[in-house]
Amino acid sequence: MVVGVQGTGFLLSHPAFAGLRVLAQRDFVQGDLTTANEAGDPPGQHDHGTKVLSLLAGQEPGVFSGVAPEVTVLLAKIDDLSLNTQLEDDGWIAGLEWLEEQGADIVTSSILSCAGGGSGRPEFKHGATEPTSLAAARPP
After folding, report:
1. What are the residues whose beta carbons fall under 8 Å from the beta carbon of 30, sequence distance 6 or more?
2. At the N or C end, where does the chain have fewer CB atoms within 10 A?
3. pTM for this structure?
4. 92, 132, 106: which is closest to 4 by C-alpha?
5. What per-residue confidence (pLDDT) applies to 81?
């Protein structure tokens, strides 16, 4: 099983990821292959993505195990914590398409998107016209 994980970034040097199988990773924020914090990222950029990834695939024997520690992952850094614009929706869509191209069997995404239609107003968050909703509903 290959799980695509979209998030704020990932600190893969954490001990819980010592045995993690990463098939590929891509940073849609900085436009490179580094999903950990790097120059230009706000402090703690990778924190939330790292926590989500640990719940899925982290493992420290005798201490902690995620729900699927043997899974292979594809990692997409798609959320810039310093922004709240349509660019974040675009990054989510680009990440989703890349994960699908790379062979993800399933994708998980744990981000907050307040951009898009209606400048983030809740009445426009109905799932019918948001670019991310439309992309997620497209057949592969």
Report:
1. 38, 40, 41, 77
2. C
3. 0.83
4. 106
5. 78
